[in-house]
Amino acid sequence: MTATAARVTRTYADNGALQVLCGPGHENMERLEARLGVTCHTRGNEVTLSGDSEPVEIAARALDALYDRARAGEDVTRADLEAAIRLGRAPETRAGPTPVLRTRKRTFSARTAGQARYLQAMAAHDLVFGLGPAGTGKTFLAVAQAVALKMQGAVERIVLSRPAVEAGERLGFLPGDLREKVDPYLRPIYDALHAMLPGDEVMRRLEAGEIEVAPLAFMRGRTLSNAFIILDEAQNTTPTQMKMVLTRMGENARMVVTGDMSQVDLPAGAKSGLRDALETLDGVEGIAVVHFDHHDVVRHDMVTRIVRAYESRDRGRVTRTSEARDPPS
Question: What is the pTM of this model?
Fold first, then answer.
């Protein structure tokens, strides 16, 4: 089938934002041309795109998104350009505007279609499950949402937790005080916090109890009201632990549960609490489940290829298992 040629002109009134959009020496336009095989011509405050119709439409959507970002006072980096192209390829996955999260250090927005669905879900639901491989931003964006809501005054505190499976939730034999015992298992959450808040503010809020980072074992028996709760690495909970955490939600509480069912570290034969919860809560009103895949990986390109290879292998295993159970008649 022969592709249809197209020509689209965009007019951007803010010349300063347009300069940021184009980048030094128009490098962003050159990258857009190379990535999508289109031609970009800039004259005054107009950008004309020409080429095959589909790439031109993607490029136009990407430019519009980047222009909005530049007008908001944000930089337009190569990573931002790649994100805009990814979102431009899949506009049908976005139902309405995607929230922008503002923290002390940075402003965060979706870089993939899956992240856009995730941000929308967290804005609209009190309980959200974010499921998928490493590098998709599940935990990072959940922490960004929590910090943004805390800064707005929508919640009074942030509670961040994950199971310390490697220590079997029995931390007594490890050296040091409580924080020294659990820090190795909670380090990724601390890293996310420090990406959004100055270090002294993180420590101040931790000491004041406005941010609490604790292993799963310390959630039992509590009611968490006016809080944003994040349970990370939830695939490593047991069904009992998962039920315990989900029922901690008090008045004006929101919760995000993240996990990757391909990375279960529980003993062989033990059922994941995450899987159990998804089965049990299927169809319950007010709960959103967002699935990520290799298209949503925003780390090094090699990570995307690694995740894709594992997904392909796992699909092959499922197919072979199904064929073994249902041999041809």
Answer: 0.75
